[in-house]
Structure to design on (227 residues):
């Protein structure tokens, strides 16, 4: 392989290795050994928060939804069929979780509807409910899918809503990605180093190469001619 091609390949391998190592370590640090990914929503105040089935039932495994009220408040959590949850909320103002973002580890949300929501706890469509004056957690099992969760502050305001997934294989995959990235980085650096050494070995200092010319022949003297 030509030297230039080796240098380009080495540079690309090293760059890819740096990116893959950084991403792998970043995910491993956030997930921890248990492979726990937690995403939080910003404070919604008195507006109910709807976590739909498109988020809860996206991956296999249990999902934990935690609602935390502000100091002195009380929060209520409930799970229901998606159609029932939407019917109860109607056109009232609420915050819907639309997805997750791993960069800030936050829930992506959208605000829809108008007007204050009714007291949702008074209806009988809920499959499961939890209430407390501190953080309240509900575990959603995929066997019950599709399912939607609603959080509402019965007193005070909601400080945040967390959605947590746990899968140990995610941490293992992150570590593997970091190790593969490190291997690529070392391979690229080794290739770059080998081309550098070869270039140094084939480069010699500039030296003056004077062309040797025969000395000018002097005319023979008379004594030499008569000799």
């Amino acid at each position: 392989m030509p030297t230039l091609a080796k240098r380009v390949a080495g540079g690309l391998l090293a760059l890819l290795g740096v990116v893959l190592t950084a991403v792998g370590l970043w995910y491993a640090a956030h997930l921890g050994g248990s492979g726990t990914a937690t995403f939080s929503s910003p404070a919604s105040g008195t507006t109910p928060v709807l976590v739909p089935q498109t988020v809860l039932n996206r991956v296999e495994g249990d999902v934990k939804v935690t609602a935390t009220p502000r100091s002195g408040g009380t929060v209520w959590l409930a799970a229901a069929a998606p159609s029932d949850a939407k019917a109860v909320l109607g056109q009232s103002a609420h915050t819907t979780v639309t997805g997750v973002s791993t960069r800030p580890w936050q829930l992506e949300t959208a605000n829809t509807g108008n007007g204050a929501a009714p007291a949702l706890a008074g209806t009988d469509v809920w499959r499961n409910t939890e209430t407390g004056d501190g953080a309240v957690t509900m575990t959603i099992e995929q066997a019950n899918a599709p399912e939607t969760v609603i959080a509402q502050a019965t007193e005070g305001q909601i400080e945040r809503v967390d959605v947590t997934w746990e899968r140990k294989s995610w941490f293992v995959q992150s570590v593997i990605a970091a190790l593969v990235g490190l291997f690529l980085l070392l391979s690229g650096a080794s290739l770059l180093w080998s081309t550098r050494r070869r270039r140094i070995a084939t480069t010699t200092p500039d030296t003056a190469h004077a062309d040797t010319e025969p000395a000018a022949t002097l005319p023979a003297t008379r004594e030499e001619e008569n000799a």
User: Anything to note?
Assistant: Helices lie at 3-31, 53-56, 82-89, 168-202, 222-226.
